[in-house]
Amino acid sequence: MRKLMWFTIGFAAACLLCALFWIDAHLMAASVGCLTAWMAALLLGRRYEWLRRVGAVLLGLGIGFGWYDAYASVYLHPALALEGKTAQITAQCADYSYQTNYGTAVDAWVEVDGRTYRARIYVNGQPEMEPGDLVMGEFLFAFTAPGGEKSRSYHQSEGTFLLAYQKNDAKLGKVSHRDWRSYPAVWRGAILSTIEDCFPEDAAAFAKALLLGDRRDIDYETNTAFKVSGISHIVAVSGLHVSILFALVYALGFHNRWLTALLGIPALLLFAAVAGFSPSITRACIMQILMILALCLEKEYDPPTALAFAALVMLAVNPLVILSASFQLSVGCMAGIFLFREPVTAWMRRRVPRWLSDSIAVTLSAMTLTTPLVAWHFGTISLVGALTNLLVLWVVSFIFYGIIAVCLLSLFWTFAAEAVAWVIAWPIRYVLFVSKLLATFPLAAVYTESIYIVLWLVFCCILLLVFLCSFKKNPGTLLCCGVLGLAMALALSWGEPLLDECRVTVLDVGQGQSILLQSGGKAWLVDCGGSNDAEAADKAAETIFSQGVFRLDGIILTHYDRDHAGGIANLLTRIPADVVFLPGVEDTDGVGEPIAALADQTVHVSADIHVAYGDTAMTVFAPALTDSDNESGLCILFSAANCDILVTGDRSGFGEQLLLRRAQLPQLEILIAGHHGAASSTSEELLDATNPAIVAVSAGKNPYGHPAEELLERLTAHGCIVYRTDQDGDIIFRR
After folding, report:
1. What are the C-alpha distances in Å from 439 to residues 166, 227, 432, 456, 506?
2. Considering only CA atoms, which of 645, 716, 11 is closest in space to residue 313?
């Protein structure tokens, strides 16, 4: 019956419910209720087999609720009590520092009120910190609450419940003797440095990502190619890498079970530690060690039970790991293989050679459960993923072993290491070439930015369920229904925007701005920046692609601040634009240089520009001043289908007054609030002159208080309808 598997399903469900909905008040009551129901199911289960499975699930639910309650009391509630508080701390760095939009970040161990937490701390400036270093100073704490942003869910799943931001001066102290917890990070840094020194520049980033999952040096274009072509998993250390490593250890152990155990278990644990004990590799290592032990003890190894045990151990250590995309994809991949590999293999072997049927079966069965998860977490459904995996997975083992050989050779013979690295660089280039080539195919991927694609994915899941439950299985019918459903979803996604005379989409890019203006079959994008440059570009590109638009008529950059311009260079690697309008002022930070290098045509606006086509008229107002950051930005008046929309960028009330003096603005249907809803923008004068019916505020979680209460009260007094991306998500106006 695999009782452990059913028990783990219940335990995981309890952790998921608590983590998603932050259930807290009635956990013990729920636990008691589930345990009572389990006892009833246990009694009745003597007559009904299915009730025994239900009983195991209920037992897991009951214990899971109780375990989460205890975990929250010990770890989460004390961390939550630190939210918004400042304290003098001494943090010990657990890894190397790196640069972010919020300063230099580093993971560290922090002791507060007698408890030790793993925290991510942000330090002003650009100090270089190494594992074991001490950071001393006053920091402001933020709690990574469950149910919050994706980034926070990532922190929780890694066991990081506190973020700490430097308030005053901080001191950095070097230590002569490192804590034992620091050594895996030190070894990881040494390996990454070796790879960087030995491999050619175009292959080093991929080699670091493949071996240890370090993707920081992979550029946006390559990351996008991996995502669209469906092979991102090969640069996220997972069960694939563990199985490759075990195959090497098994060969070195001459297939002897005891020698394999002697070499394999320490090697797996060391590899997991150096790779950072990510959820996917931890799951894989636990299962692999169980298989080694079963081999040594001559016991039967049951993969589903081993998967359940691995998941249960990880959930017991940190129940919030259930939120991790890495954990979900890793477990989902293995569950899909266990459920579907044999029937798919049996069907394939009657039609294709055995060596090919096994590869196809593993690929397809793994994708059955991971595809919906990838769509949920990353918004992408790769339609060429199966083909890409078949073309590149066969060479990944060779590359992996080659990277290990390079690292070992570098210890005593640098020339030999560099020679092997030169050889291994060629299959790496092959993988990069294939992924980038397939990513350029029309419809290589579709995106969940379209509700019709989401409905199609749900339809496919229902189709698969019906297929599995039917007595006469016809894969051809399943495939035809899926393709027809996709064609219908694409027709609706691409056709709907064409029905609108005017369409305005204010994208939810966090603390930033990106606005899509559409009319008369043309599409203009105003700004593309947000809390994260890559995410802002992804959001804009996937929204545009989901509407059947594969080339923009133009991009307008209001000004050079990163929260408006940071994603444009990345966006241009995915979708071209006929022209890019840039402010005709000095670009002190060089933000416009990469944009100009990628754009077909750039125009630096120093005088007002008027664009007209069909019933649409657009005016791009030149900078009001040339020596002021916010006032030197562009403003856009877009008029179509008797709908007037005004975008003022980050101009303050003073800049708005300068605009009113030089232009006769009409009564507005839509006004994009200036400076993300700052109190100093969207002034009384502008509201009186334009009397907007609707005001859209593009803002995300931020420390500035945007949108300001003062502004919201001002808008209410003028009778404006207010929409906010931080509350409403994407805002779409149609006419």
Report:
1. 42, 8, 11, 21, 27
2. 11
Q: Specify the fold of 86-178.
A: OB fold (Dihydrolipoamide Acetyltransferase, E2P) (2.40.50)
* Cα–Cα distance measured from residue 572 to residue 552, given in angstroms and rounded to the nearest whole number: 10
Q: What is the pLDDT of residues 3-50, one digit of tens each?
A: 888 889 989 988 888 887 765 545 665 666 666 666 666 655 556 666
Integer-rounded Cα Rg, in Å, for the chain is 28
Q: Which amino acid is at 178?
A: R
Rounded Cα distance, 646 and 658, in Å: 15
Topology annotation, domain 501-734:
Metallo-beta-lactamase; Chain A (3.60.15)
Of 240, 264, 267, residue with least CA distance to 250: 264
Position with higher pLDDT, 63 vs 506: 506
What gap in Å lies between CA 348 and CA 342, rounded to an integer?
Answer: 10
- The reply to whether domains 86-178 and 501-734 share a CATH topology is no
pLDDT tens by residue, 705-732: 889 999 999 999 999 999 999 899 999 9
Question: Rounded to whole angstroms, how far apart are CA atoms 53 and 592?
Answer: 61
- The set of residues, in sequence order, having a beta carbon less than 8 Å from that of 52 and lying 6+ positions away, is 1, 3, 41, 42, 45
d(CA 303, CA 314): 17
Where along the chain do its domains lie? 3-80, 86-178, 451-497, 501-734
